[in-house]
Design goal:
With 608 residues, the protein is an alpha/beta fold. Helix content is 20%, strand content 29%.
């Protein structure tokens, strides 16, 4: 921690004094941050934007940054990723702060483990990196709902990213908590944070002219004193600027640099240029190719930006993984959800962490979804309830995973309704098809007597960018109709697939895997690690679509339509000996699970 501070203090006597005071604080169990401002009174100006250059105090400063999202990297690997950033010659870390992960339920905050923002920022400082913080509240980031909590959508009149009272009240409470953690980490308080972003790419949204001034004031009122900046792409740059805030640009190629810089100077006069996001790659969607940039094009664009005297941030330096269900989606002409992997890291000079292939694993036990329902408590409702409005999680609704609807029918017909995002329809336990954005009706064949109609709906990820983020409620939206009659009397099961869910499945109720399993189903097996655990990649040949859990941690989705063919399994999440593996498979199981020391992210497609 203090190695970072010492490198910036003149003279050994000052460094020795800091160590003495640190030792005193440790012995007295005091908070070292309370005294830092007394030692660093020369830190008055911080990062400022001059006519042509950035200045850090009275020295010219260029930002050479890279983005790493702490919530997409196992905490055990934070140091490794940050050291690689430092080794590449970068001096600044940028990271988003995901509101939806930090406040999963209204008023209940989580900054522990992999979400320990303060520890991540202080680790960056220890390594010798400055920090630009991008706290949102909306962050895009290809994360579910752009980082906004799904419980906001319980309000039927919600207007996200506006000064709508229901939204600003929630933001105010969140910022009250978040900024109390962030303020001591600012440069002028002795920390590494040299700048803070005001929201994210609002010019492309631009629904409320009062919104960005509100966010700026919300930050300042809570003690943010460092340089404020906005960040916009070519579609929103002219509309995203606000007085008193530095405008920065996001781009894909060097061809955009001159036009965006000229636009900035025409509106803001002279100011230093910061490419807040130089997109070093692109995200992938299920069923598409694996998008990459040619390394020569990356070199050409970075060189052009630096030669122009601009500062730059590589987005992303290291992409990481959408563990669990945190991936976002896009919905313009059609709905496309993002894959589990998030970006490809630039090749760093230090040695990569070792990878290993383990012995193939064959699941030993099985529990069909239908048998598992006896361990769950359904919600009874006259009409379908969407996921966010489910009376679960202390009234905060369900954020991620699946939701199962059951009702009884007595006749065939045409089933109609809006299902978000993908619903598998069953008669009793027999699958008869899928409903989604394109398929809004399905034929229910001839049945005899009372039959259970079931729809298993998957939330594949809420849109993180676009004008329709208010319309991201999941599950069955509105009524379900059989012919023209609305169906009634539902039993609804929340299947969020949290660790607590699996604890309800009594171990003696799992059976040996049958020759012909009934799907959907859970499969239980063990991955044997004989030596020190290393990173690996799971390959599910023969499996179709589902989710993998290792020792209770959700690795994310797999789907045989690609492009991604492997799931990243951090060695830090393994233990020597037996590791529990649970797979939730929707349709078809394979004979075993293989591991490989090489990731397979799919067929490459160069971005143009």
């Amino acid at each position: 921690m203090f190695a970072w501070s010492l490198r910036r203090k003149p003279g050994r006597k000052v460094g020795f004094l800091l160590l003495v005071v640190l030792s005193f604080l440790v012995l007295r169990r005091l908070d070292w941050r309370t005294l830092i401002p007394l030692w660093l009174r020369h830190r008055q100006l911080g990062l400022t934007a001059g006519v042509q250059n950035f200045m850090l105090e009275d020295s010219t400063f260029w930002i050479f940054g890279g983005s790493i999202h702490y919530f997409r990297v196992p905490r055990e690997y934070w140091r490794d990723r940050l050291l690689k950033m430092k080794a590449c010659g970068l001096n600044t870390l940028t990271t988003y702060v995901p509101w939806n992960l930090h406040e999963p339920e209204r008023g209940k905050f989580d900054f522990s483990g992999n979400l320990d923002l303060e520890a991540f920022v202080l680790m960056a400082a220890e390594i010798g990196l400055w920090v630009i913080l991008r706290p949102g509240p909306y962050i895009c980031s290809e994360i579910d709902l752009g980082g906004l909590p799904s419980w906001l959508l319980q309000d039927s009149g919600m207007q996200l990213r506006t000064t709508y009272k229901g939204f600003t009240e929630a933001v105010d409470l969140y910022f009250d908590h978040l900024m109390s953690r962030v303020v001591p980490l600012q440069y002028k308080h002795g920390g590494p944070i040299i700048a803070v972003q005001v929201e994210n790419e609002y010019g492309s949204y631009n629904k409320d002219p009062a919104y960005m001034p509100y966010i700026k004031k919300a930050l300042e009122d809570r003690g943010i004193v460092e340089l404020l900046l906005t960040s916009d792409n070519k579609d929103g740059l002219s509309k995203g600027m606000i007085p008193g805030v530095l405008a920065t640009i996001n781009l894909q190629s060097h061809a955009e640099l001159q036009s965006l810089t000229t636009l900035l100077q025409s509106v803001k006069r002279m100011q230093p240029t910061l490419v807040m996001e130089y997109w070093t790659g692109w995200f992938d969607s299920w069923g598409g190719p694996h998008n990459i940039l040619d390394s020569s094009e990356v070199l050409q664009t970075v060189s052009a930006i630096v030669d122009a005297g601009a500062s730059i941030n590589l987005y992303m330096f290291h992409g990481g993984t959408n563990f669990g269900f945190i991936n976002g989606a896009m919905h313009f002409n059609e709905y496309k959800s993002d894959v589990t992997s998030y970006g490809t890291p630039l090749p760093p000079p230090p040695d990569l962490l070792p990878k290993m292939s383990y012995e193939p694993m064959k699941p030993s036990f099985y529990l069909s979804l239908w048998d598992a329902l006896q361990y769950l408590e359904p919600i009874t409702s006259e009409k379908p309830i969407n996921m966010e409005s489910m009376p679960v999680n202390d009234g905060n609704g369900q954020s991620f995973g699946y939701i199962l609807y059951e009702t009884t029918i007595t006749s065939p017909g045409i089933l109609r309704g809006l299902v978000r995002d993908r619903g598998q329809v069953f008669l009793d336990t027999v699958s008869i098809g899928f409903m989604d954005y394109k398929t809004t009706q399905i034929i229910v064949p001839l049945i005899q007597g009372y039959t259970m109609l079931r729809i298993l709906v998957e939330n594949r990820g809420r849109v993180n960018y676009g004008d329709n983020i208010d319309d991201q409620r999941k599950g069955v939206i509105g009524n379900l109709y059989l012919d023209d009659s609305p169906l009634k009397k539902f039993r609804i099961y929340s299947l969020d697939l949290k660790k607590s869910l699996f604890s309800r499945f009594a171990i003696d109720k799992w059976t040996s895997v049958p020759e012909v399993p009934v799907f959907p189903a859970f499969f239980l097996g063990a991955l044997l690690v004989g030596s020190a655990p290393f990173d690996t990649f799971l390959r599910l040949e023969g499996w179709e679509k589902g989710v993998v859990f290792i020792n209770g941690k959700n690795l994310g989705r797999y789907w045989n339509i690609g492009p991604q063919k492997t799931l990243y399994l951090p060695g830090a999440w393994l233990q020597k000996g037996i590791n529990q593996v649970i797979i939730f498979e929707e349709m078809v199981s394979g004979p075993m699970i293989q591991s490989t020391d090489i990731p397979h992210l799919g067929r490459n497609q160069y971005i143009h």
